[in-house]
Amino acid sequence: MELLVFGHSGRAILFFPTRMARFYDYENWGIINALHDRIYNGELQLFCVDSIDAESFYNQWAHPAVRICRHMQYEQYILHEVVPLMRHKNDGSFFEVAGCSMGAYHALNLAMKYPCLFKKVICMSGRYDLTKQVADFRDLFDGYHDENIYFNMPQQFIANLHDGYNLDAIRSVEIILAIGETDPFLSNNMEFNQLLWTKGVPNKLYIWDNYAHRPRYWKQMVQLYL
């Protein structure tokens, strides 16, 4: 699998692509260039990974159980290949993770499952329960549900999380959610924001004007939140 690394030092950020997008799209859309000075000055180091959404969540030819298993294989790639690469190229002891659209889901899911790896998660224009149909965005598992799906839907497993150790670890992560006021995922973000607060997990929700689910908005968001 291919990826791109931008920068030589600073805060190491694992950056997930949008829905079925590629590792080079953030560069092509000008989002990396929006951070040029901070990258050049050694403040940020971005690791832009590729996506296999077309083989997992959006593979309509595969049974939903196979889709989630394919996603879990992708997660193992991130944990056992990308994270070690980040450690090799960056001497920081804690990493950050970010993403836009579907990338926001990937970022949040990983940070909530492995909070000891990340000290900050930045989620832009995302949704955090892929089993719910939201406007024209369908349930990605067609009504099917199993344990693997449950443990990969942050809005589901966080709701039933009562373990002090795990919650304490999540509470140590800085969580930022950003969403447009007319984005169909707004209600999902507001629900998740409140869910986290009921669990004693601090987080920040920023609601932008208009739809804000476009690269031109994400260029502004990364400058503010990364």
Explain the overall architecture.
It is a single chain. This protein is of the alpha/beta class. The chain has one domain (3-225): Alpha/Beta hydrolase fold, catalytic domain (Rossmann fold), CATH 3.40.50. Helices cover 38% and strands 18% of the residues. It contains 9 helices and 7 strands; from the N terminus they run E-E-H-H-E-H-E-H-E-H-H-H-E-H-E-H. The protein has a 7-stranded mixed beta sheet with strand order 1-3-2-4-5-6-7, sandwiched between helices. The model has no long low-confidence stretch (mean pLDDT 97).
Q: Which CATH architecture is right?
A: 3-Layer(aba) Sandwich
Q: What is the CATH C level class, in words?
A: Alpha Beta
Radius of gyration: 16 Å
Q: CATH superfamily membership, which one?
A: Alpha/Beta hydrolase fold, catalytic domain
Whole-number mean pLDDT:
97
- What's the end-to-end separation, in Å? 25 Å
- In total, the number of domains comes to 1
Could you say which structural class the secondary elements and strand pairing correspond to? Answer: alpha/beta
Instruction: Return the CATH topology.
Output: Rossmann fold
Number of helices: 9
Q: Biggest β-sheet: count, sense, barrel? A: 7 strands, mixed
DSSP, total strands: 7
The geometry reads as: globular
What key attributes describe this structure?
226 residues; 7 strands; 9 helices; seven-stranded mixed sheet; alpha/beta; globular; Rossmann fold
Structure summary:
The chain has 9 helices and 7 strands, in the order E-E-H-H-E-H-E-H-E-H-H-H-E-H-E-H.
Q: What's the layout of helices and strands?
A:
Blueprint: E1 3-6, E2 11-16, H1 25-28, H2 36-40, E3 44-49, H3 64-89, E4 95-100, H4 102-113, E5 118-124, H5 147-150, H6 154-157, H7 164-171, E6 174-180, H8 186-198, E7 204-208, H9 215-225
Parallel strand pairs: 2-3, 2-4, 4-5, 5-6, 6-7
Antiparallel strand pairs: 1-3
